[in-house]
């Protein structure tokens, strides 16, 4: 038993995630249909499992630029084609959904997948706040919505019969929320961008902390990770109950130069057409792009050696135990996504795990 606990403590999970964007290929000008995109997502999940990755995530956006608006539905389809890989939302915009409905959906997914479902809950990226208007919520309640709904979601996760009263949905009085997940509770993470308050809340609530790290210097995450662990410890949680994940954009090719040359057009395409950075002054130049892929920066683009170096640098800063990449932005064709998955699994994952076992410590 002691050996099993030590192995679990030293484990480091790898995965991939997607939002299913429908950006036109910058080279051909062709766009895939939503149907093809969803089929490619299922194929990527199957490949990720076959290659040995641990986690597959599906996020949500509610605009015509994305194929995925219903993560539990897509993940249920993935569950029928996989047997082992964990299935997570990446992220669920909790502020615009009913926590009761959300819990029912993911508990059902958990049963269909033999206990593999997780939820990463967040407030929504600032670039995609149309979701609030679409579902009838006001941005003036941005923080209050999440605070209320994450507390209700956690209560549902711990109690089969729920009594609760809040501002944003009808009162619950000894309400039974069913079905229950296979293990009794769902693993819950909170997605955090840049605010210490969000990190502290995740620790106080005993949820996992999932950093959205798309750009910039990862050293900015260290005070947030420290605040998370301090708040969790003060609330009575053990270190192993406070996992940290890093989620970000990436692309892996056999060599660093090949990765940079292949990926830059897709990266620029994504930020122009999805992030709406159409003013040349707002867009990242090729030189800025290459600088942002260095070991001390977040963007995970390069050959396997560069990705290993980046992960180890970040682990030294924040001690994360999960690393998941979005490999398919801006029209990257499935064949290139598949190659990145295989390189992540075969040439990055074993090296990182060997290095970490040599250190004999994970936070």
From TrEMBL:
A single Gene Ontology CC term: cytosol
Sorted UniProt keywords: Monooxygenase, Oxidoreductase
GO molecular function, one term: monooxygenase activity
Limits of the Luciferase-like domain: 13-318
InterPro entries: Bact_Lucif_Oxidored, Luciferase-like_dom, Luciferase-like_sf
Protein name: LLM class flavin-dependent oxidoreductase
């Amino acid at each position: 038993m002691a050996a099993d606990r030590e192995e679990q403590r030293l484990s480091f999970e790898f995965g991939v995630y997607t939002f299913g964007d429908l950006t036109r290929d910058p080279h051909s000008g062709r766009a895939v249909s939503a149907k093809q995109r969803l089929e490619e997502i299922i194929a990527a999940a199957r490949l990720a499992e076959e290659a040995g990755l641990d986690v597959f995530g599906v996020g949500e956006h509610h605009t015509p630029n994305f194929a995925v608006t219903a993560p539990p539905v897509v993940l249920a389809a993935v569950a029928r084609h996989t047997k082992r890989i964990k299935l997570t939302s990446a992220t669920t915009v909790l502020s615009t959904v009913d926590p009761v409905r959300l819990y029912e959906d993911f508990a059902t997914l958990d049963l269909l997948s033999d206990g593999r479902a997780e939820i990463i809950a967040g407030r929504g990226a600032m670039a995609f706040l149309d979701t609030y208007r679409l579902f009838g919520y006001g941005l003036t309640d941005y923080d209050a919505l999440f605070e209320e709904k994450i507390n209700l979601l956690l209560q549902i996760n711990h109690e089969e019969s729920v009594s609760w009263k809040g501002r944003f949905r009808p009162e619950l009085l000894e309400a039974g929320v069913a079905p229950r997940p296979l293990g009794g509770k769902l693993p819950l993470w909170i997605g955090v961008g840049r605010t210490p308050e969000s990190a502290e809340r995740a620790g106080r609530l005993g949820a996992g902390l999932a950093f959205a790290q798309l750009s910039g210097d990862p050293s900015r995450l260290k005070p947030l990770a420290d605040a998370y662990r301090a708040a969790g410890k003060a609330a009575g949680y053990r270190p192993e109950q406070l996992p940290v994940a890093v989620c970000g954009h990436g692309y892996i090719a056999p060599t660093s130069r090949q990765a940079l040359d292949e990926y830059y057009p897709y990266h620029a395409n994504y930020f122009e057409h999805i992030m709406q950075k159409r003013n040349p002054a707002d867009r990242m130049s090729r030189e800025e792009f290459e600088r942002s892929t260095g070991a001390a920066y977040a963007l995970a683009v390069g050959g396997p050696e560069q990705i290993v170096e980046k992960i180890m640098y970040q682990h030294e800063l924040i001690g994360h135990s999960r690393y998941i990449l979005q490999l398919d932005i801006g029209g990257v064709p499935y064949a290139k996504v598949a190659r990145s998955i295989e390189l992540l699994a075969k040439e990055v994952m074993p090296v990182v795990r060997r290095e970490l076992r040599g250190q004999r410590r994970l936070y």
